[in-house]
Amino acid sequence: MLEAGNNSELPAIPGKRYFTIGEVSELCGVKPHVLRYWEQEFPQLKPVKRRGNRRYYQRQDVLVIRQIRSLLYEQGFTIGGARNRLGGDEARDDLTQAQQIVRQIRVELEEVLRILRR
Question: CA-CA 20 to 30 A from 81: which of 26, 42, 70, 88?
């Protein structure tokens, strides 16, 4: 879904447990109102809601949002097509998400290595 080339233009995902909608907006290159709309359109996207209906996204949510962004903006899918693609073969989706997590960890480890070499 997200190839390494597309991933490089987005910032690395910090090692936090929860992210606000503003942080996710910056991490994924998508405006907050678009994220709220996508919550209605994609059942896979379920951020935790706390006091005052504030949304808190987890790392998995950020990866799903990046997948949706890639499908819609880079691969040209419609909302319905992207929904079908994400909901289709769950085993393949799990593999793709695992690959994305491995890529993200690799980027973060390379950054740590670069800092340690200074």
Answer: 26
